[in-house]
Amino acid sequence: MSILNLPLLIQDTAAIEGDMGMMWMLISGILVFFMQAGFFLVESGMTDSKNAVNIAMKNFLDIAVGSLAFWFIGYSLMYGADQGGGFFHWGGFTFSQGAADLFFQTVFAATAATIVSGAVAGRTKYTTYAIFSIVLTAFIYPIAGGWEWNGGWLNNTDGIMPAEFIDFAGSSIVHSVGGWAALVAAWMVGPRIGKFLDGKPVEMHGHNQMYATLGVFILWLGWFGFNGGSQLAWGGDDATAASQVVLVTNLAASAGALGALLLTWIKNGKPNLSMTLNGALAGLVSITAGCGNMSEGGAVLAGLVGGLLVVFSIGFVEKTLKIDDAVGAISVHGICGAWGTLVIGLWGIDGDAGIGIFNGGGAAQLGAQAIGVLAYAAWAIVLSFVFLFIMKKTIGLRVTEKEEIAGLDWTEHGSIAYHGKRQREIDEE
């Protein structure tokens, strides 16, 4: 090939890599979209069968209203122009920087909303949940997301930040925001009837652990798009980096599952399926922030700690805080999201250089990660409380006792998921 054609070759290569990057983002976004099915199966499988239709309706609502709310206003609040100190962004209604990016970011917003669904399952008004889902995807999540992913104040080292905050795929931005919102929602809605007896938590078994298991497998699969797609490009070094992200994501999930499995086996004398499933999810959340800044060994350790942490956290939320979280969402997404963000400051890397304190990086990165964790927690908790308090005083948060006992499928939707025995019970009522 003549040297005269070299500029044309470079231009063609760049165009091909651009197209491949767009395709990678679309495929990854489709995988993340499929995670909604996983969330539905996990939540319905870990709770009572009389609420399965309600849970299905909530998950469909999240992706439907979330897509429209994020398209109309949320994406602009997240990726529009800086409107003051890197805290607030706005580019106008239906603002877009490209269809592939808009779609990819939309399914992330829906994920944040779905996290709340599991924590308040079985006793929350569908109308209330619908409104809060819109608020979360249109305002709470996107404003906070712009602080990091649109060059906001968390990346401004001229201000209070000792180093640039890192959250590659959203341990704090997506998962902790959803987890802290779930904490507030579960506390304000109150526990399910029969959850606490004389102040002690009663184990309320889910109706189908096979659903829950299949759901976690789907989420595990979707997470390869969640984290890998966050490279936002494909080709050359980007292809290598995205492949490494997928690898460490899988390693952390595996370590988290084994950590929870072994801990519950030692504590209870038998390996526990539901805790093992939550351990895998904890490992996935724990690597989401650092999947672009973690060695393979570091990912295994991060996931392992996440798997151990989620077991203790679920017990703490129930026994000490007396909060009923039907699926462990607060612990999996809130607590492990915070851990996954902080661990970058402990043993994170940037290429061949260490940025965590245990590999010679100093304390600056850990300080930046801690500031980010606290900022996202405060934002999600305060905003969630304000909106939920308003709804509690107006339309109410919770169904009646009679409706909860009968099941939300019938009382909220006039339908049931399973016929036969359950239909006979309803007829008798």
Automatic annotation (TrEMBL):
Residues 23-418 form the Ammonium transporter AmtB-like domain. The chain crosses the membrane at residues 20-42, 63-82, 102-122, 129-149, 169-189, 210-226, 246-266, 273-292, 298-317, 329-349, 369-390. Pfam families: Ammonium_transp. InterPro entries: Ammonium/urea_transptr, Ammonium_transpt, Ammonium_transpt_CS, NH4_transpt_AmtB-like_dom. It is a multi-pass membrane protein. Keywords: Ammonia transport, Membrane, Transmembrane, Transmembrane helix, Transport. One of its GO terms (molecular function) is ammonium channel activity. Gene3D superfamilies: Ammonium transporter AmtB like domains. It is found in: Cell membrane; Membrane. Its main location: membrane. GO terms for biological process: ammonium homeostasis. GO terms for cellular component: plasma membrane. Signal peptide: none annotated. Belongs to the ammonia transporter channel (TC 1.A.11.2) family. This is Ammonium transporter. It comes from Algibacter lectus.
